[in-house]
Amino acid sequence: MLFDEVITNDPRYTYKFILTQPIRLTNGAVRSATVRGSVREKGDDFIKLRIRNGRDHQTDLIIPKASILYIEQTWLRE
What we know:
The chain is mainly beta. The protein has one helix at 2-6; strands at residues 13-19, 23-24, 30-31, 34-42, 46-52, 58-64, 68-76.
């Protein structure tokens, strides 16, 4: 699958994902269909993404691969 070739779980890389619909976090908050973050884990049918949730908080978000429309690598930290 293309996702496995494009995405790495190296925390230096940050990605922008455009999803088919807005996604709900575990705390009930709704994120827009555009999510930015670094990949923590890749499964056969999901991606676990670390996103910034507020100024000093981070949240892990599990995104089904079927709901991803577009992926763009946005930044490389040194």
